[in-house]
Every structure is written in structure tokens, then in C-alpha cells.
Amino acid sequence: MNCKICNSQTEIIFKKVILNKYGASYYKCSNCNFMQTSNPIWLKEAYANAITNLDIGLASRNIYLVEEVSKLIEKHFTDSKIMLDFAGGYGLFVRLMRDKGYNFYRQDDYCDNIFANYFDINNIKEKKFDVATAFEVFEHFPNPLVGIERLFDFSNTIIFSTELTDNAENLEDWWYISEETGQHIAFYSKKTLEFIAKKHSTNFYTNNYNLHLFTKKSISQNEIFETEKYISRKKRIMNILLGKDESKNKANKTSLLQQDYHYIKSMLHKK
Questions:
Q1: Furthest-apart CA pair in the chain: how many Å?
Q2: Residue spans of beta strands (DSSP E) within the chain
Q3: CA distances from 202 to 26, 138, 227 (A)
Q4: Packing angle between helix 58-76 and helix 227-241, nearest 10 degrees?
């Protein structure tokens, strides 16, 4: 199997069982370090719900992203007049950004617009935007270059999030694979995203963890993301989910979040 990003040779590095029933091989590219699954024949079943029940961080993630994206716009993209949240799910991010005064619209081919009704791409004539956002989207693309090309059709500035394989201690046990849901099928390294940026003749910036930026604008890397603040928060949440939080106040900090995660996961296994 060739890499879906750079067309180089890949090799199988491990196998998983998806949705408790489908065998899947995971391939890693020898050139750009992109990781992809074998043909994801399970996608129709995986998207019975557009947003998985295991996404218990949906609300807090959107609140955090509103804070970070607002900072980016105010500091580096002040001339932006109209913006789009691509694959924007229920529209929570768009609603929160509009509440702060940013002219954001939502796009999503599969999910109902609950929070940003009347502020959907279908409600406007514009098809080109000053800024596009795409949070937790790249890992869902069956054909990543096609999906990313579509994003660039919307805007030359793309703020997006996806976890980097570089930060996985053990890829086979990496939580982001999410075999219980089957929705994550494309996994990027920093080198992968650099390759994509070069292909589109654009600049690439990252906090080296989860939040990234493609833009034609030249910006100092040190001026973009508050990396340490984000990483410490993300690690704390993941330690909670994995039962590794050693704080004295563990019961109060982890109780509901950990219970929710493991309960929903157990329900998925019973299906």
C-alpha cells in the first residue's frame, strides 16, 4: 500500500480490531511518517452517529479553542471579515465565536446544525473565507489530500487540530487510534504536515502537539501558540481518562470524567 500523502512505500506496523469486529492493518510511510489504516470498510457503521458518543471533551474543547482562535485572529489576522468552521458539527464553536463578535459560519455535510442555525454556509453566497478552521477533522479523511484541498478552496489560512504521531509513546496503544469508534483512519506527524504545506506552497506552524496552522502569511513561530499551557492541560485530561492522575484531590478531579469515559466505552463494547 502506498502512502496517501506522498505516495511512498508504507509498511504494516500493527493490527487492530475496529468496532469489535473488523480487522484493520495500520501502515506507516517510510518517507513522511503518515500513518493510515487498510481500506476502512467500517466507515458507514462508524458514522451511524456523526459525532461519537465517546467524545466527552466536546464542550470543553470548543471553549478552549474559542480562546486560542480569538488570540490568533486578534494578533495575526485582524483584517479577517468572514470565517468558516469546516465540519463544524453541532455548531457550538461558531455560536461561541459569533457571541464574541466574529463573523463565523459553519459547514458540515453530515451533522445537524443545532447551535448556529441560520449561520451555515448554505445561508450565504460567499464561498471564499479569510480564515477557515477544522478541529478534529483531518484524522477522519478517507482521502486526506482531497479533504485538505477542499479546505484550501475555502481559505488560504487554515487553523486546525489533530494529534501528532510524534507524541505517541507507543503507536499501537495510542488512545487517538480510537478503535472503539472506528472514525480515526488518518494520522499525521509533523513531517507529514510539513510535506502538505510545501505541496500547497504555504507556511506551516504548530504547537508541536495538537494545534496547527497553514497560512500564506509569515509569522514568527514563537508568537503563535501558548504551547506549554495547552500541553499541560491536555496531558492532565488524558491522565484522568487513563486513570493515571496522582493528585491528592484525585476523587474530585477525576470522578465524573473518568466514570463517563469508561461507562460509555463499556456500552460500545456491548453492542
A1: 54
A2: 10-18, 22-29, 35-37, 83-86, 104-107, 131-135, 158-161, 186-187, 203-206, 211-215
A3: 29, 17, 22
A4: 170
3-state secondary structure of 16: strand
Domains and CATH numbers, the chain: 59-225 (3.40.50.150), 226-271 (no CATH)
212 — pLDDT class (breaks 50, 70, 90): very high
For the chain, what's the residue count?
Answer: 271
Q: Above 70 in pLDDT, residue 15? A: yes
CA 56 – CA 52 distance, rounded (Å): 9
> End-to-end distance of the chain based on CA atoms, in angstroms?
31
Residue 168 has pLDDT above 90, yes or no: yes
Pairing outcome for strands 186-187 and 35-37 = antiparallel
